[in-house]
Design brief:
The complex is a heterotrimer of chains A (177), B (440) and C (320). Helices cover 69% and strands 0% of the residues of chain A. The relative contact order of chain A is 0.19. Chain A is built from four helices and no strands. By secondary structure, chain B is mainly α. Chain B has two domains: 1-42; 61-299 and 310-439, no CATH class. Chain B is 79% helix and 0% strand. Chain B contains 22 helices and no strands. The longest helix of chain B is centred in the middle third of the chain and has 35 residues, at 269-303. Chain C is α/β, with parallel strands linked by helices and 320 residues long. Helix content of chain C is 44%, strand content 18%. A six-stranded mixed beta sheet of chain C has the order 7-6-8-5-9-11, with helices on both faces. A five-stranded mixed beta sheet of chain C has the order 2-1-3-10-4. In chain C, β1, α1 and β2 form a beta-alpha-beta unit. Classes of the chains: A mainly alpha (177), B mainly alpha (440), C alpha/beta (320). Chains in contact: A-B, A-C, B-C. At the A-B interface, α1, α2, α3 and α4 of A face α2, α4, α5, α14 and α15 of B. Bound molecules: sodium ion (NA) (2 copies). One sodium ion binds at residues 112, 115-116, 154-155, 157-160 of chain B.
């Protein structure tokens, strides 16, 4: 077995798999949205009886699913950047720039956690709910904040990778060593 | 206003610099947006707004169309729907001069009709069609150029993720927007086939005739394309007929492709997980950029920049069509360097106030639809132009022996026909507007 | 200007709500202050966020003022919701506006936290719009799918034996044109914007123009900002948001409603005004909605019956 591939250290690999499974959870929610929509369309077409609150199920479900997909998007280096202007720089310089990008991502994520933590408190205290089902909105904030915590973890893992001279988007974690 | 306007301009310059040094576009927009709000309106407003802005942005109902169509496209890719499409198109067209390339374009169009992304269309059709094109000794330039250009049909033909985001920003009905892109995208397919016909008339060796198939194969191949045609018909047809709106339509599409793939045993659990993860990458990026763009919009709005830009442009006394030309040219140039979605999100807050203030003899809603199609085409042109031509890169990676410059050369005829198409659509907005008017 | 105030809202700059209500109101206040006050209206959510966030934005001071729909923030205004109920709001938006103001201090104030409510108002009320079937009795709606505006609207549909379908109002025309829904509960005022004259055949209202509930809107200012204003400036706002203004707002919404209805009748639609007897059947059928609301309110520790009685009494006083 070759020596540890750069950018695939224990911490990075751990973070990767955490983000991956969390994103798959988001995917399951997306499939749930699909099911609700299909049942509602069919129910409306055949029995004139739709699911009354599909709209708010989609809103809350898609938001939570997409927050859950953010950490995986980050750790795989999928956030689009314009790399044409830096293409001619030395590889080391490019990884440093990528590291700075990841740092900004981590800072943004932490800032969001801080602010949305207060947002969670607000929707809890003011008892905000969805319209038809009276679903308490604060519940949806919980997986959202967890997702953002993972997002920060992913950005830190990216910083570790770039410190080792590796670009996150070039690492294939699922390749068998 | 002067001070705030200046802050806005400096903010824009800093953002461009951040993007140039490879900072992810979403973060560059978000950070500059937040810094700008802080400078213009103070810390309290920024801190308060950030309590709910991200969650609110992510709950946008119309935006949910994007991840669903992306998921559908990735499932379709994994279910090998591209293979049946190409086989059918090739059975009908392959024996003409340049026919295999024409078949590749047709198959790209078919795949584009169920997939919302250019890159996915280019890579999946590239894998299927490139070996065939090489087998019939198509010139490397034509073979790879065709597929790079054909890939753009993924986003030119609805469903189209760029159009989803455009619709969300300018607040136009997504179904109407899709229907507006319908006829122009048919024109694109026609033009691409015309481009191949002309190309192979000038250079006959570049695209030899393929083999003619017997009736049995013709029938079998045609039947093989039926699943895609059914999915396309039910999803987009049902949407245009008004049986359901965009989000349910996309859900039905995911369901149909999943059901087909599982029933035919071409989608394993592993494939489904892979499709989810690919969706996480694409859709996650889109949602983050949308959030960044929202922050930038607030900054610019508080600085009065879009209104000032619109006024300056409108007071410049330039003819509406000249201003439109300036805007489209700017989009083409940006398309050469950046991905199309980022461009739309980045520039629309400035360009849209300008365009919507001009008189082209159209209603406001018609202007939204017309400009949406034009903007879509010109930002997608960048996918096949140097220096950054993502579709060219993808196809070229599948044909490592072909020099990159050959692929760019092969894509050039298609690029020229796209320019002709833009001129046509500018001159005759009816090509865009007739179909949405007819179905409603 | 000494006092620059941003007013944020969710409709476009050409919506009657901006041109006929918010702009005249803002202008009068500016003039009355001799130019010391400058109210800048930001339509179309141009200062960011989604419509449901408006109430948070004003509470947190992201913007100084908002015009928003209470229904965007379900759960936040459980008491004010009483005015959205059928058999509470009848046919006169002006009267309901005045009742909203009258009950504000005694019954509603505690749920408006962090904001100074300058005024609240309603639209003219939900009428029944249907595609091909005339509605004369509740049973004419049995089994039909109806687009509903709010959760209490869903209760109304259910009470009438119909299936409620919740959808954003821009999707309503398409759903109608393809038979996805058979009708919906919306005010007439929205007919021209959605081209409902071409998509529906019947507009139905109760006797004397009675409606099946309405929606409540508010124009509010951030409380800290309000408290920071000198008394004479505050007084200008209060003077221009009092009873006369509430009657005027009622008239504005009633007028746009009439104009909307005219568009439909000129296009050949049938306006069905139920007889007193027919109306009574509807009122009886939807009364369980009020009971249901009272039970829910009681569950939240609110005296549901008390608020319903007070609202009805107040609306009755202000109605001609
Ligand atoms: Na497409
Ligand atoms: Na390019």
């Amino acid at each position: 077995m070759p020596a540890m591939q750069p950018g695939r250290g224990g911490f990075v690999l751990f973070a990767y798999h955490l983000c991956k499974w969390w994103a798959i959870g988001g995917g399951v929610i997306l499939f749930g949205i699909v099911a609700v929509n299909v049942v509602s369309v069919v129910g409306l077409a055949i029995w004139r009886s739709p699911i009354p609150g599909v709209y708010e199920i989609v809103q809350i479900g898609a938001a939570v699913a997409m927050f859950m997909m953010l950490p995986y998007c980050q750790i795989t280096g999928s956030n689009v950047s314009a790399d044409i202007f830096t293409a001619s720089l030395r590889p080391r310089t490019i990884t440093i720039l990528a590291g700075i990008g990841a740092l900004l991502g981590a800072v943004f994520g932490l800032f969001l956690i801080w602010r949305m933590g207060h947002g969670l408190k607000d929707v809890y205290v003011y008892r905000e709910t969805t319209a038809i089902y009276q679903f308490p909105v604060w519940i949806a904030y919980v997986p959202t904040l967890l997702s953002l915590a993972l997002f920060v973890l992913a950005a830190i893992a990216n910083m570790v990778q770039t410190a080792q001279g590796v670009l996150p988007e070039q690492v294939d974690h699922d390749a068998t060593a | 206003m002067g001070q705030e306007f200046l802050t806005g301009l400096v903010g824009l310059i800093i953002m461009v610099l951040l993007i140039a040094v490879r900072i992810p576009i979403a973060f560059a927009m978000a950070l500059v947006g937040m810094a700008g709000i802080y400078l213009i309106s103070g810390p309290m407003i920024l801190l308060s707004q950030m309590k709910s802005l991200a969650f609110g942005t992510f709950t946008n109902y119309d935006l949910s169309v994007a991840p669903l169509f992306i998921l559908m496209g990735h499932l379709a890719t994994r279910a090998n729907l591209s293979f049946g499409l190409f086989r059918a198109a090739n059975a009908w067209l392959g024996h003409f001069r340049g026919g295999v390339a024409m078949a590749a374009i047709t198959a790209c169009a078919g795949f584009g009709a169920i997939c919302g992304s250019s890159l996915a269309t280019a890579s999946t059709m590239g894998k299927v069609a490139l070996p065939e094109l090489r087998r019939y000794n198509y010139s490397p330039a034509l073979a790879t150029g065709t597929l790079a250009a054909g890939g753009t049909l993924g986003i030119l033909i609805p469903p189209s993720i760029v159009l989803v985001v455009y619709s969300v920003i300018v607040e136009v009905n997504i179904v109407e927007m899709f229907s507006a892109a319908m006829v122009p995208s048919m024109v694109a397919v026609l033009f691409f086939i015309l481009a191949i016909a002309l190309y192979t008339r000038i250079a006959p060796d570049a695209g030899p005739k393929g083999g003619r198939v017997d009736h049995q194969e013709l029938l079998a191949a045609t039947l093989g394309a039926i699943p895609v045609i059914l999915v396309f018909g039910i999803v987009l047809g049902g949407m245009y007929l008004g049986l359901y709106t965009a989000t349910p339509a996309a859900s039905i599409g995911v369901f149909l492709v999943l059901a087909y793939g599982v029933a035919r045993r071409v989608l394993s659990l592993r494939d489904i997980v892979a499709a989810i993860l690919s969706t996480a990458k694409n859709a996650g990026m889109i949602y983050l950029i949308v959030l960044g763009a929202e922050l930038l919009k607030i900054f610019m709005s508080r600085g009065g920049v879009p209104q000032a830009a619109a006024n300056a442009m409108l007071e410049s006394g330039l003819q509406p069509y000249l201003l439109l030309l300036v805007v489209l040219a700017a989009l083409i140039v940006m398309g050469m360097f950046m991905d199309s979605l980022s461009i739309i999100l980045l520039t629309l807050p400035f360009f849209w106030p300008v365009i919507s203030g001009l008189d082209f003899g159209l209603t406001p809603n018609e202007t939204k639809l017309w400009f949406g199609v034009l903007a879509l085409i010109v930002v997608e042109l960048g996918l096949i132009t140097p220096p950054v031509g993502m579709n060219v890169f993808i196809i070229n990676a599948l044909a490592r022996d072909v020099p990159m410059i050959e692929t760019f050369k092969g894509a050039l005829p298609f690029f020229l026909f796209e320019i002709v198409r833009v001129i046509l659509l500018v001159a005759f907005p009816a090509i865009v507007l007739a179909f949405p008017a007819w179905i409603s | 200007q000494e006092f620059e105030l941003k007013l944020h809202h969710f409709l476009g700059p050409n919506a009657p709500a901006q041109t006929q209500m918010l702009e005249p109101w803002a202008q009068r206040i500016e003039v009355a202050s001799d130019g010391r006050i400058d109210i800048e209206i930001y339509p179309s959510m141009s200062l960011g966020g989604t419509p449901p966030e408006l109430i948070r934005q004003v509470r947190d001071g992201v913007v100084e003022m908002v015009w928003t729909l209470n229904g965007y923030s379900p759960g936040l205004f459980p008491r004010t919701e009483v005015f959205e109920l059928p058999n509470v709001h009848r046919n006169d938006p002006g009267a309901t506006n005045l009742a909203l103001a009258e009950l504000f201090d005694t019954h509603l104030a505690e749920e408006h936290v962090g904001v100074k409510v300058l005024f609240q108002h309603v639209h003219a009320g939900q009428a029944i719009h249907t595609t091909d079937s005339e509605v004369r009795t509740p049973s004419d709606l049995a089994g039909k799918s109806l687009r509903i505006p709010t959760r209490t609207g869903a209760w109304v549909a259910e009470a009438l034996g119909a299936n409620p379908v919740s959808m954003p109002v821009p999707d309503f025309p398409q759903a109608l044109s393809r038979g996805v829904v058979d009708g919906g509960l919306v005010p007439y005022e929205i007919i021209p914007a959605l081209q409902l004259q071409d998509l529906t055949d019947y507009q139905t209202e109760l006797a004397d123009g009675g409606r099946l509930g309405t929606s409540v809107f508010q124009v509010s200012m951030n409380l800290d900002r309000w408290n920071s204003l000198p008394a004479d400036i505050q007084q200008i706002f209060l003077d221009n948001s009092g009873e006369d203004w509430l009657r005027e707002v009622g008239q504005i919404w009633a007028d746009t409603d009439v104009q909307g209805l005219e568009v439909a009748t000129e296009a050949g639609n049938t306006l069905v005004t139920l007889t007193a007897e027919e109306s009574a059947a509807f009122e009886e059928a939807v009364e369980p909605v009020v009971t249901r609301w009272i039970e829910e309110a009681n569950g939240l520790g609110i005296d549901g019956q008390g608020i319903v009685d007070a609202a009805r009494a107040s609306i009755a006083t202000y109605s001609e």
